[in-house]
Design a protein that fits this description.
- By secondary structure, the protein is α+β, with helices and mostly antiparallel strands.
- Helices cover 37% and strands 12% of the residues.
- It has 16 helices and 13 strands.
- It has helices spanning 3-20, 41-45, 83-89, 101-104, 174-189, 235-243, 249-263, 294-316, 367-384, 390-415, 423-436, 440-447, 474-491, 498-506, 516-526, 532-541; strands at 64-66, 77-81, 117-119, 122-125, 128-132, 138-145, 151-157, 196-209, 218-229, 277-279, 287-289, 318-319, 341-342.
- The strands form five sheets. It has a five-stranded antiparallel sheet. A two-stranded antiparallel ribbon has the order 1-3. The chain has a two-stranded antiparallel ribbon with strand order 4-5.
- The longest helix has 26 residues, at 390-415.
- The protein is globular.
- Belongs to the SELO family.
- This is Selenoprotein O.
- Keywords: ATP-binding, Magnesium, Metal-binding, Nucleotide-binding, Nucleotidyltransferase, Transferase.
- It comes from Datura stramonium.
């Protein structure tokens, strides 16, 4: 009998027994690691690689390869953890105190029920088709089902080589792992769809990295992040198999069916509805109902989720840095935190990725257009696999554009405390901010202090903004004074009190963001064995809209040293 099939059948039997016995369980009870309910549907329902070795190779006709974590460890240590992610899994937070917890989440020890694998996918990198990519250093342990039947994948990033590692070692360093851990949780705190992070552990072993690709490699502490998401399926998961010809089109369909079944179940049994029909734009005014093709309805929802996510990035000044199609989640989650960055001074051309500096393909201003380009590649893959018509693919892209603009306009309206979108006022504001390189986060936070009183003397109009309008000359003061006058005039027509508007604006304009220099300070301390700053930074970023008295230093502008080369300005090896 095939050994893999035997493992699968035993795992299935254990799941069924546990589910059958769960009817009378107190669902509020927190679980130990051994009590987690593993399901492993991805491995069970989709075609896998018959080989289980980690030798780099092209893996054909398979969505994954079963592979075990193989990172060398020596007394691994728990650096930081997220109790809110533990809540999703219904994991008892006392489990973080277990002496063997770092061993388990470094991959050195395993849990009964795990079925580790690396996913196979492809993608466009910087606009060029790269072929097979896959999880080169991320190994999914399996899926956890909580008492609400919510499905959560646990994945170790930096857990060793896989068949998709190519020439890399499959490992990760503490520097990049801290950034991934903190930003996953900071983005969640900001209300932005994202993969999550349960914990971060050091491996106790050094990893050689050439941080700046300048021929001067050095040893850095190794580390592993446990990432958590309802699914790690990417645009590239579909692209790869569609690119391999008709023999793999059924895999594209199986992956689409899998995603819809577990993550878009409302699309399984749709009834005809005028609300999701659309005009084809043809002369005969024909219309197509999306209920006639669940894959078309799914593509539209993926497009709209992606548009909403990128609009939310724009809201908080987030720049992803590597918006390759293999880094785009079909669930509309922010995924793969490599060279990310939040805007300090407002600069639409900002990119945190040194590799992207020549063309700035993935700069802040370009992200909405890149998102559309990526959706075009995703829908092309589905069309190639004969799941979508060309008209349905075009419609998904149209819906992306409409959704992005609707969400972006609503976001900017709320950020300014307006009751309706004012394109001229907002465009003029962003122009002024770019000219004077105004701090993006602090400006919008301070803006809520403006009073809607047209009688305020002209020489006092800028007082509420004095801490963010720094070093501007007389000509620029006049420009800002003119804008504030127009803003106050608009506010005075809303009928909203200053106090009510301030509460509303402060609830959408964060006081705290994960600035690069804050990350670097936490990294510097952690590399010396002090994890306190990582933990404190996590705590602050979990409540970014709150005042948090005593934490004001985390809202300060970057110090002068933060502009030195290499301070989290990364394409750096990780």
């Amino acid at each position: 009998m095939d050994s893999a099939a035997t493992v699968d059948s035993v795992a299935d039997d254990l799941v069924k027994q546990r589910l059958e016995g769960d009817e009378n369980v107190d669902i509020s009870r927190k679980l130990s690691l051994e009590e987690l309910n593993w399901d492993n549907s991805f491995v069970r329902e989709l075609p896998g690689d018959p080989r289980t070795d980690s030798i780099p190779r092209e893996v054909l006709h398979a969505c994954y390869t079963k592979v075990l974590p193989s990172v060398p460890v020596n007394n691994p240590q728990l650096v930081a953890w997220s109790e809110s992610v533990a809540d999703l899994l219904e994991l008892d937070p006392r489990e973080f105190e277990r002496p063997d917890f770092p061993l388990i989440f470094s991959g050195a020890s395993s849990l009964v029920g795990e079925m580790p694998y690396a996913q196979n996918y492809g993608g466009h990198q910087f606009g060029m088709w790269a072929g097979q990519l896959g999880d080169g250093r991320a190994i999914t342990l399996g899926e956890i089902l909580n008492s609400k039947s919510e499905r959560w994948e646990l994945q170790l990033k930096g857990a060793g080589k896989t068949p998709y590692s190519r020439f890399a070692d499959g490992l990760a360093v503490l520097r990049s792992s801290i950034r991934e851990f903190l930003c996953s949780e900071a983005m969640h705190g900001l209300g932005i769809p994202t993969t999550r992070a349960l914990c971060l552990v050091t491996t106790g072993k050094d990893v050689m990295r050439d941080m700046f690709y300048d021929g001067n490699p050095k040893d850095e502490p190794g580390a592993i992040v446990c990432r958590v998401a309802q699914s790690f399926l990417r645009f590239g998961s579909y692209q790869l198999h569609a690119s391999r010809g008709k023999k793999d089109f059924e895999i594209v369909r199986a992956l689409a069916d899998y995603a819809i079944r577990y993550h878009f179940p409302h699309l399984e049994n749709m009834t005809r509805s005028e609300s999701i029909s659309f005009s084809t734009g043809e002369e005969d005014n024909s219309a197509v109902d999306l209920t006639s093709n669940k894959y078309a309805a799914w593509a539209v929802e993926v497009a709209e989720r992606t548009a909403s996510m990128i609009a939310r990035w724009r809201d908080v000044g987030f720049t992803h840095g590597v918006m390759n199609t293999d880094n785009m989640s079909v669930l509309g989650l922010t995924i793969d935190y490599g060279p990310f960055g939040f805007l300090d001074a407002f600069d639409p051309s900002y990119t945190p990725n040194t590799t992207d500096l020549p063309g700035r393909r993935y700069c802040f201003a370009n992200q909405p257009d890149v998102g559309l380009w990526n959706i075009a590649q995703f829908t092309f893959a589905l069309s190639t696999a004969e799941l979508l018509s060309d008209k349905e693919a075009d419609y998904a892209m149209e819906r992306y554009g409409n959704k992005f603009m609707a969400d972006y306009q609503a976001i900017m309206t709320r950020k300014l405390g307006l009751v309706k979108y004012n394109k001229q006022l907002i465009s003029e504001l962003l122009k002024n901010m770019a000219i004077d390189k105004v701090d993006y986060t602090n400006f919008f936070r301070y803006l809520s202090n403006i009073k809607a009183d047209p009688a305020i003397p002209e020489d006092q109009l800028l007082i509420p903004l004095k801490d963010v309008l720094l070093d501007i000359g007389m000509e620029r003061k006049e420009a800002w004074t003119g804008w504030v006058k127009s803003y106050i005039q608009e506010l005075s027509t809303t009928g909203v009190s200053d106090e009510e508007r301030k509460v509303s604006m402060d609830s959408v304009n964060p006081k705290y963001i994960l600035r690069n220099y804050l990350c670097q300070s936490a990294i510097d301390a952690a590399e010396q064995g002090d994890f306190g700053e990582v933990r404190q930074l996590l705590k602050v970023m979990q409540c970014p809209f709150d005042e948090q008295p005593g934490m004001e230093k985390y809202a300060r502008l970057p110090p002068a040293w933060a502009s030195r080369p290499g301070v989290c300005m990364l394409s750096c090896s990780s």
